[in-house]
Design brief:
- The chain is mainly alpha-helical.
- It has 8 helices and no strands.
- It has a single domain (14-191), classed as Fic-like fold (Orthogonal Bundle).
- It has helices spanning 14-17, 28-48, 57-68, 92-108, 114-128, 135-149, 167-180, 185-191.
- It is globular.
- Bound molecules: adenosine-5'-diphosphate (ADP) and magnesium ion.
- The site of magnesium ion has 3 residues, from loops.
Amino acid sequence: MKFTYAVGATPIDADEAAGLIPSHISTQSDLNTWEEANILQGAAWAQRQKKRELLKEGFVRDLHKQMFNRTWRWAGTFRASNKNIGVDWAHVSVRLNNLLANTQYQMSHAIFEADELAVRFHHQLVWIHPFPNGNGRHARLLADTLVVRLGRKRFSWGAHSLLTGGVLRQQYLEALRAADIGEYERLLAFARC
Ligand SMILES: Nc1ncnc2c1ncn2[C@@H]1O[C@H](COP(=O)(O)OP(=O)(O)O)[C@@H](O)[C@H]1O
Ligand SMILES: [Mg+2]
């Protein structure tokens, strides 16, 4: 299997590639299709978790697991190596728990309105980059689940797939880079465009 990467995607290393479950997949496009079906199941699972607290490490990991459990053996498992993006792998758990606690505090003290809270959460989660792959899709679905719990509609994130290259993905990445320096307006607008 030869992986090809969209701009801003995290390359998969050899150990991670060995964790691919379906044996018939040989192209990136087959993999994308397979992952998409798996992710739909994960999204349906997330909708059923009405009583579970979202802002817990267990939920964050379980969601990744449900999205990728038929694709990667390491689904739901944190990174054990560094990537071109993300915190040092050894700090993932601490940084994630910090983010979850901060976001819980922001929610209970109504620091931000719902969209801004969820978009900030999305950016900081994808910045931590907890998993070897699937971080963008996982952090978008988690932000959607959060914003729906807060009484809003789910985000549109450009309304088309962001997985392959193209103008929308460029816009999304530019908005994330603005968020990297603390400017959230573009990402907020992109999430609802
Ligand atoms: N400069 C950046 N700041 C924050 N997040 C970024 C940046 N560049 C890329 N990302 C995030 O990383 C994701 C790519 O990581 P990856 O684990 O491959 O996710 P996926 O497989 O779902 O695309 C992008 O979709 C985006 O969410
Ligand atoms: Mg990827």
